[in-house]
Amino acid sequence: MRRTAFTALMTTGIAIATLMSLQAQAAEGKLVLYTSQPNTDAQQTIDAFKAKYPKVDISFVRDGTPRVMAKLRAEFEAGAPQADVLLIADSVTMEGLKKEGRLLAHDKADVAAYPAGIHDPAKSWFATKLITTGIVYNTKTTMKPTSWTDLTKPEVKNLLAMPSPLSSGAALIHTMTLTGSLKDGWSYYEQLKTNGALAAGGNGDILRQVATGEKLYGMIVDFMPIREKAKGAPVEFVFPSEGVSAVSEPVAILSSTKNPEAAKAFVDFLVSKDGQELALKQGYVAAHPDVALPAGYPARTAIKLLPFDAAKALANETAARKRFSAIFE
Question: TM spans, by residue (predicted)?
Answer without folding.
Answer: none
